[in-house]
Design brief:
This protein is α+β, with helices and mostly antiparallel strands. The protein contains nine helices and eight strands. The strands form three sheets. A four-stranded antiparallel beta sheet has the order 1-2-6-3, with helices on both faces. It has a two-stranded antiparallel sheet with strand order 4-5. Bound molecules: cobalamin.
Length: about 260
């Protein structure tokens, strides 16, 4: 299917927001394939299952990006500092974090709606790259939700860095809704770099190994949290990922949903 030029993209973005997304947009998969993360990741994968030498290196564990997938719908859910539990991990929570749980359901509803409303076949992307997921910051940049900041995160005008992302591949050639003309890091003295407890920006750019040290430590530092906080019946073991670089970003401080 091809865009009819009559604003199907606007209808899809509006529906995504109606279902609870804070921001939404569309990008071309051919642009995503050549985006920076794919170039870098092929040289230094975070997950050892990723095999850049395989004939089709988007193929992980039998999951493959299909030729028919032409566009990605990407959306953001605001994760304000006032609602920290959205981001806490528990094996007992569907989708592992309360925020991901919400986005998984949005994804299912959107996939069904795209089929019923427009006859578009869609594929709800898993979060993990090694199970066929896509790089969501690059997708969101191309779709115009925000730009990649010096903190290595997507910075959006409306919510700063404090969003979580999700995506759906669509068998439809749609017009991209981005990128955005926005340059929030220009002239900023980079409080995000100072805030990192591991000095992950000490060289001036993000160093994954240092960031991972902090998140691995937090992974081991589990706390028992009441089920009511995580939206489930029983108490569970919870880990709280690091958010110092996110919270330090001055863009849209104080924004809630
Ligand atoms: C693996 C992973 C991690 C790993 C490894 C991180 C890494 N960056 O390598 C660990 C556990 C360390 C981690 C840490 C964090 N993560 Co993380 N992570 C992921 C995951 C699953 C894949 C990311 C990845 O491997 N990218 C590939 C590498 C090569 O790229 P990169 O280093 O991240 O960044 C590249 C791009 O920015 C690109 N780039 C640079 N400039 C430009 C310019 C343009 C124009 C474009 C298009 C691209 C581009 O090049 C960069 C490499 O130098 C994504 C989810 C997903 N499916 O995308 C979440 C994700 C990126 N993480 C997220 C978050 C929030 C975090 C943390 C704050 C921890 C937390 N509270 O969850 C920290 C932040 C660290 C930081 N400042 O980057 C969010 C980001 C939200 C946002 N606003 O951007 C995501 C999207 C998950 C989500 N739930 O929404 N993460």
């Amino acid at each position: 299917m091809k865009s009819d030029g009559n604003g199907i993209e606007k209808t899809i973005v509006a529906k995504t927001k109606e279902l609870g997304a804070s921001l939404a947009g569309i990008a071309r998969i051919e642009d995503l394939r050549v985006s920076k993360s794919y170039e870098i990741y092929a040289k230094s994968p975070f997950y050892e299952q990723y095999d850049p030498k395989s004939p089709n290196y988007f193929k992980f564990k039998g999951v493959k990006w299909r030729e028919e997938h032409k566009s990605v719908l990407v959306w953001a859910l605001s994760h304000p500092a006032s609602d920290p539990a959205l981001d806490w991990w528990s094996m007992k929570v569907p989708g592992f974090t309360p925020g991901n749980g919400v986005m998984r359901l949005q994804s299912k509803k959107l996939r069904i709606w795209l089929g019923e409303e427009f006859g578009i076949n869609a594929y709800s992307l898993p979060y993990q790259i090694e199970f066929g997921g896509a790089f969501l910051k690059d997708s969101a940049h191309l779709a115009g939700l925000g730009v990649i900041g010096r903190n290595n995160l997507l910075v959006t005008p409306e919510f700063g860095t404090r969003v979580r992302l999700r995506g759906i591949f669509m068998e439809a050639e749609l017009e991209p809704t981005g990128p955005l003309d926005f340059d929030p890091c220009k002239g900023c003295d980079r409080p995000c770099h100072q805030a990192c407890p591991r000095g992950a920006f000490r060289s001036g750019v993000f160093e994954r190994v240092l960031c991972k040290k902090e998140n691995d430590k937090r992974d081991a530092d589990v706390e028992i949290v009441d089920g009511s906080i995580m939206g489930i019946e029983e108490a569970s073991e919870v880990t709280k990922p690091c958010r110092y670089c996110e919270f330090a970003c001055p863009v849209a401080q104080g924004a809630s949903r």
